[in-house]
């Protein structure tokens, strides 16, 4: 599928500062914005979208029904639907499968991939609670239900405080960023491409991001897609 051929405007998405303030960000309601990840200055591209009410209800039902916390498969655009139906154990979630399959198709088309590594996880606590970078070329991230991934603009990060550089301190205490207002957050249903350290020419510029704290009694349904050889 051509990335530019499908899209719907986001409803209620959080305000994202303009590109002049965040030169490494590309964002918009048309999925074609994802292609901006190829721009050298861009290390996050966000397709701002919303789910239909019926699909959102199905997502909630899916989360409540899951006995296993995650699904992890290697799939191609042609076999993704059959693999997901097998993993989910029911054709009842076909609308969710169709949406995931479309994202797989878009991801493979954009990066000329034959297959992807898919992980869909029901989270009831933060998976990666500290800010970090991914050592991959690029990762697709979307939160189908619950609060979205948090990230920091390049110009707000002291990269010396990542990982062991934090000296065991929290992100807030380590000096990784200056103010809480530096933290940006994707909206639920937004689809983002996060450029990692493995992208050629992007060393020391991978997007700094983390899983948000999840309020007690709530959950997230997180989908990630990665390159797979």
Which key terms come to mind for this protein?
three-stranded antiparallel β-sheet, alpha+beta, 229 residues, seven-stranded mixed β-sheet, Jelly Rolls, 4 helices
Q: Extract low-pLDDT stretches.
A: 4-20
What is the fourth-level CATH superfamily?
A: Jelly Rolls
The helix-strand sequence is EEHEHHEEEHEEEE
Q: Give the strand content.
A: 15-25%
Number of strands: 10
Radius of gyration, taken over Cα atoms and rounded to an integer in Å: 17 Å
Number of domains: 1
Integer average pLDDT: 89
Report on this model:
The protein is globular. The chain starts with 24 loop residues before the first strand and ends with a strand. The chain has 229 residues and is of the alpha+beta class. The protein has one domain: Sandwich (Jelly Rolls), CATH 2.60.120. Helix 2 runs antiparallel to helix 3.
List the helices and strands and how they pair.
Blueprint: E1 25-28, E2 44-47, H1 53-65, E3 70-75, H2 80-88, H3 94-111, E4 116-123, E5 138-145, E6 150-152, H4 171-174, E7 184-185, E8 191-195, E9 208-210, E10 220-227
Parallel strand pairs: 1-2
Antiparallel strand pairs: 2-8, 3-4, 4-10, 5-8, 5-10, 6-7, 6-9
Helix pairs in contact: 2-3
């Amino acid at each position: 599928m051509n990335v530019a051929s499908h899209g719907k405007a986001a409803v209620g998405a959080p305000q994202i500062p303009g590109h002049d303030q965040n030169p490494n960000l590309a964002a918009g309601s048309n999925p074609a914005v994802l292609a901006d990840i190829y721009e050298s200055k861009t290390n996050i591209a966000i397709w701002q979208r919303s789910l239909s009410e019926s699909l959102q209800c199905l997502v909630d039902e899916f989360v409540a029904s899951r006995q296993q916390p995650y699904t992890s498969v290697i799939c191609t655009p042609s076999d993704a639907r059959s693999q997901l139906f097998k993993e989910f154990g029911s054709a009842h979630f076909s609308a969710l499968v169709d949406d995931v399959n479309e994202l797989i198709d878009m991801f493979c088309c954009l990066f000329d991939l034959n297959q992807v590594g898919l992980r869909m996880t029901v989270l009831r606590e933060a998976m990666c609670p500290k800010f970090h970078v991914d050592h991959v070329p690029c990762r697709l991230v979307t939160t189908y239900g619950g609060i979205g991934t948090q990230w920091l603009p390049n110009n707000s990060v002291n990269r010396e405080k990542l990982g062991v550089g934090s000296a065991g301190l929290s992100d807030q205490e380590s000096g990784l960023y200056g103010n809480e207002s530096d933290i940006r957050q994707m909206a639920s249903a937004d689809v983002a491409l996060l450029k990692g350290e493995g992208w050629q020419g992007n060393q020391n510029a991978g997007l700094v991001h983390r899983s948000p704290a999840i309020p007690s009694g709530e959950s997230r349904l997180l989908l990630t897609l990665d390159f797979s050889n």
